[in-house]
Amino acid sequence: MRFNTAQVLDLVRVPKETLRHWKTVLPPIQQRDGRSAQYTFAELVALSVIAAAVQGLAIPISRFTSDAEWLFKEITNWLEAGSSPAYFRILPGKVRFDDSLDGEDVAVVCVVAVHIVVAHLKAKLAQPNEGAKASQLALPF
């Protein structure tokens, strides 16, 4: 399934200007052009994980520029493998994608639970589109 820009904005919950800026700093989506852009579910998940870190944890988007290709690939592989619990961990100087929270000996770590992000996305996708229903009812005759 592919998602257009309007759907991505709605599902990731970022303004158009934010996504436009992210396209300039995140290599995996740099080649997307405006209205014709199409995104995979894995890309939607990656953008949602990044949005959770940027909006919920106040981590600047620039922190993800060098790791974006890696993160998008990790999420694609993880989804293809079956989507068991997974965590995107942001540590001083590095990021990790793991199936547990064990193993780091650091004082500060930020975590995004990827499996929960996916569950929220799937729940939102399963909801009937109220906007589409309303526009269908507003017939011009």
Q: Tell me roughly what share of residues is in helical segments.
A: 40-55%
Strand content: 5-15%
User: What class would the helix/strand composition place it in?
Assistant: alpha+beta
> What is the rounded Rg?
16 Å
The count of helical stretches stands at 6
Q: What is the H/E order?
A: EHHEHHEEEHH
Strands of the widest sheet, in order across it, are: 4-3-5
Strand count, sense and barrel status of the largest sheet are: 3 strands, antiparallel
Give the end-to-end Cα distance, rounded to a whole number of Å. Answer: 34 Å
* Total count of strands: 5
Identify the overall geometry: globular
Unreliable stretches covering 5 or more consecutive residues: 131-141
Report the mean per-residue pLDDT as an integer: 86
Topology:
Blueprint: E1 2-4, H1 5-12, H2 16-25, E2 38-40, H3 41-57, H4 68-81, E3 87-91, E4 94-98, E5 110-113, H5 114-126, H6 130-137
Antiparallel strand pairs: 1-2, 3-4, 3-5
Note down, in words, how this protein is organized:
With 141 residues, the chain is of the alpha+beta class. It has a domain at 2-80 and 117-125. The chain contains 6 helices and 5 strands, in the order E-H-H-E-H-H-E-E-E-H-H. The strands form 2 sheets. A 3-stranded antiparallel β-sheet has the order 4-3-5. The protein is globular, with a radius of gyration of 16 Å. The chain starts with a strand and ends with a helix. Mean pLDDT is 86; it is low at 131-141.
